[in-house]
Amino acid sequence: MDANEASATTPDSEETAWALRQLESIRESIDNVDAALIHLLAERFKFTQQVGRLKARHGLPAADLDREARQIRRLRGLASEAHLDPEFAEKFLGFIVAEVIHHHEKIAGAAAAPASPRPPAA
Q1: Which of 3, 4, 43, 100 is deepest in the core (most CB within 10 A)?
Q2: At 75, which CATH number?
Q3: C-alpha radius of gyration, the chain, whole number
Q4: Is the pLDDT of residue 112 over 60?
Q5: Maximum Cα–Cα distance across the chain
Q6: Of 59, 93, 57, 53, which Cα lies nearest the Cα of 73?
Q7: pLDDT confidence of residue 109
Q8: How far is the C-alpha of 43 from the C-alpha of 92, rounded, in Å?
């Protein structure tokens, strides 16, 4: 391989440094989106906890299959509009819904458990 071939296949240090800066910038953006997702999920779970308490208080089932089906259709449509794989969006929602149902079942179990007696006041 002669010098021209070597320079055509090996990026020079300036190009590499530029690419590394770009990579770092893009990764910072990804980190920001990840942080936003965590905060949004936390906010979503605050609402679903309220739903779980209402369901438990009124003896409603933890899962609502009609609601889940509507959400899947809606989010698949949103995913398509956003150029995100609808299958991925459905799997992601499925994971979240499974966790929500688990929380609702725990809330319902705690609501159904008999209250422990309070120790006498001193």
Answers
A1: 100
A2: 1.20.59.10
A3: 25
A4: yes
A5: 92
A6: 93
A7: 87
A8: 17
